[in-house]
Amino acid sequence: MAVHLHEEDLPEGALAPGPVAVDTETMGLITPRDRLCLVQISDGQGDEHLVRFGPGSEFNAPNLKAVLADPARLKLYHFARFDLAAIEHYLGTCAAPVFCTKIASKLVRTYTDRHGLKDLVRELLGKEVSKQQQSSDWGAAELSDAQKEYAASDVRYLHAMHEILVERLARENRTELAQACFDFLPARARLDLAGWPEHDIFSHEAA
Ligand code: MN
């Protein structure tokens, strides 16, 4: 179990086949303004890979893009909508097919409104993740050990949660509905980038 930091791309062959957990860290919440600093990725075998992009990066990362674009690899996210938009905007890649643990949580954990990663990891796995470094300077020349650990922990539990949430979705007969939501996520991310970030396109309201 180790955290590996790479500059500008993933080394070839770093990941075992199968689903990968993916997360991103950026300079902020406005994707076209706030550059992509880090992509975290894990094959669920115990290691996490952090791919860092410097200021002025050309985001020329063929190995990472190949994994993200691979239609045979399921990508596991927590709040995929944000990560898909950042990856699409900066890496020019549609990182699907998608499973989003936040959407799955909303569809099965209807007894709570706590769908953050921290709450989900605690309830499903009985583990604690710290959110202390969430709003830190991901564009810094050197990432601190606390930042690296935080970034890695954001992808560490997604495989285990995916397994549990798949069972819970089946139990509640919401597998197909979840899949339809996941399939729409790349388009939802594109709507965010194209100027409809908070507008619900399905709403009766004009704007
Ligand atoms: Mn994160």
UniProtKB/TrEMBL annotation:
Pfam families: DNA_pol_A_exo1 (PF01612). It comes from the Bacteria. Residues 1-170 form the 3'-5' exonuclease domain. Coiled coil: none annotated. One of its GO terms (biological process) is nucleobase-containing compound metabolic process. GO terms for molecular function: 3'-5' exonuclease activity; nucleic acid binding. Keywords: Exonuclease, Hydrolase, Nuclease. This is 3'-5' exonuclease. It comes from Novosphingobium endophyticum. The gene is rnd1.
